[in-house]
Amino acid sequence: MSSPTTVQKLAAEALGTFWLVLGGCGTAVFAAKSIAQDDDTGTSFQVGVGFLGVSIAFGLTVLTGVYALGHISGGHFNPAVTVGAALAKRFDWKDVPGYVVVQVIGGLIAGAVILVIAKGKDGFEAEGNMAANGFGDHSPSGYTLLAALITEVVLTAIFVVVILGATDTRAPAGIAGIAIGLTLTLIHLISIPITNTSVNPARSTAVAFFNGNGAPGQLWLFWLAPIIGAVIAGVLYPLVFGKGADEPELDQIPNPPVST
After folding, report:
1. Which NCBIfam families match (predicted)?
2. What is the pLDDT of residues 11-34, one digit of tens each?
3. Which of 47, 50, 155, 249 is deepest in the core (most CB within 10 A)?
């Protein structure tokens, strides 16, 4: 079987990031706070999926994306993962810019699709309602810049460590997608109240400019913090845990098994 071409890999990364944003942010916009009304009493009550549902949605998009597209592109769907994998010598640095660009493009297309669909409901206002990340006044629970920075750095580092560990040749085969998806679910359960959870610059960029309300001005943090976390993980993982004895360098692997 022939190896995927560069175009196919880039297309897979764009599609996977599109799916991640559509599934995760789309759930947050459309389903997190859905309100229903009792026809008999006229009483309104919430039927939305809440933080738990949004967390599960992000985990499921990654899990399904990894199994559907990971064999083509490695299934990063996240600039932080791409950088972390390159630092861990599991991905070629020359391919990093292309991956990052298409990840951002795929995310932005998904953000635009969410916006178009959301405007199909009377009274929808995009400002402040597009699942953007934020801190201070734009944090869901009012957490500070420092709290947001620490949260995003630590959780991204853990996320990338899990990815590198789950795709290590010494790890059980075939379960990487499950481990990665469950980890992203847990990360969202921890940090939605703090930053609305990024750990992924492409996800943050995808909705920030549509959301407005301060999100574009705070976007720098949701690039800086995840990249710092990825650097920590990418450098420390091979130093602390080593490399599988039979694990070749990236340039010897047609389809490097690195996913998110």
Report:
1. MIP, PRK05420.1
2. 999 999 999 999 999 999 999 987
3. 155
